[in-house]
């Protein structure tokens, strides 16, 4: 998600989004631990999205 898309969401929506992103990140990380995933850069992009949403929540 882009920064402009995040600024349009409410705090409750951001918290839900953060929970979903963290869950998908952990699942992908576990899948990568068991057997390497095809595109390991997905881990980096998900981790950065989690950080973007968390930063937006803390700004408010």
Q: Give the oligomer, counting copies of the same chain as homo and different chains as hetero.
A: single chain
Query: DSSP helix count?
Result: 3
Question: What is the chain-wise order of helices and strands?
Answer: HHH
Helix content: over 70%
Structural class: mainly alpha
Largest sheet: none
Give Rg in angstroms.
13 Å
Task: Report, as a whole number of angstroms, the end-to-end distance.
Answer: 18 Å
**How many individual β-strands?**
0
Mean pLDDT: 92
In terms of DSSP E residues, the strand content is under 5%
User: Low-confidence parts lasting 5 or more residues at pLDDT below 50?
Assistant: none
Rough outline: elongated
Written overview of the protein:
Helix 2 packs antiparallel against helix 3. By secondary structure, the protein is mainly α. It contains three helices and no strands. It is 80% helix and 0% strand. The model has no long low-confidence stretch (mean pLDDT 92). The chain is elongated and about 40 Å long. InterPro entries: Ribosomal_uL29, Ribosomal_uL29_CS, Ribosomal_uL29_sf. One of its GO terms (cellular component) is ribosome. It comes from Flavobacterium nakdongensis. Pfam families: Ribosomal_L29.
């Amino acid at each position: 998600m882009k920064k402009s898309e995040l600024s349009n969401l409410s705090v409750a929506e951001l918290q839900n989004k953060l929970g979903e992103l963290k869950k998908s990140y952990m699942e992908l990380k576990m899948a990568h631990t068991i057997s390497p995933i095809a595109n390991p850069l997905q881990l980096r992009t998900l981790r950065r999205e989690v950080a973007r949403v968390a930063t937006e929540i803390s700004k408010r």
